[in-house]
Amino acid sequence: MLSIHAQAAVIDNFASGNQAIFRESSWDSPPIRSEVPISDSLFESRFVSLSYGSSQSLTVTNSGQVLEYQVGLGEGGYFDISYRSRTPVNLLGAGATAFRFHFDGGYIDGERSSPRFPNNLALVTVAGRATSPLWGDRLRTATDENQGPFIIDAPFSEFIGAVDLTQVTELTFSGSRIFHRVGFRLTRIETIPEPSLVGIFLIGALPFFLKRSRIGKAP
Q: Could you read off the pLDDT of 31-52 as tens digits, one per residue?
């Protein structure tokens, strides 16, 4: 099997910055927030927040390299997972064209299930804010079709608004109005480039090489 490996830039591999926040089930209590510096990332820090509604928890465990989010009984879970940098980040470095999120499935009451809820993916740039309108539909489709680990790509070309991808100060993945006992696990966030021209040529030429190989082995 031919494998073409494209170099990726890490947003978060959850190997640094342990975090654990919990919110009681009370609409009146204030949001629970935590921000920690992270290493091996394009950004400087990870900011997480739980606000409104049901009891919720969000933990980042460096030993397991995973971020886990859970909502308790009731409805109304709200979360934000953000990456921030005081120095603007150039997301287009190394030819990157999309974000890639690695999920380790979702669950309800410990059973794997689709974490379906309204969600958003947004950027803050020096020029303003940009969002990816197709992100929510793509997450719902992916979680419906995959019971185990899966990935979701968010192409830069789909963002609308102040899209200056060479001057990004924040990336945010958020969710709202989340049903009871829903959760998900994230294991990696990165940027990915398009396949190189060499890779595209090799993939396109693969049938030719396989045919030549069969001819060479024929008696």
A: 899 999 999 999 999 999 998 7
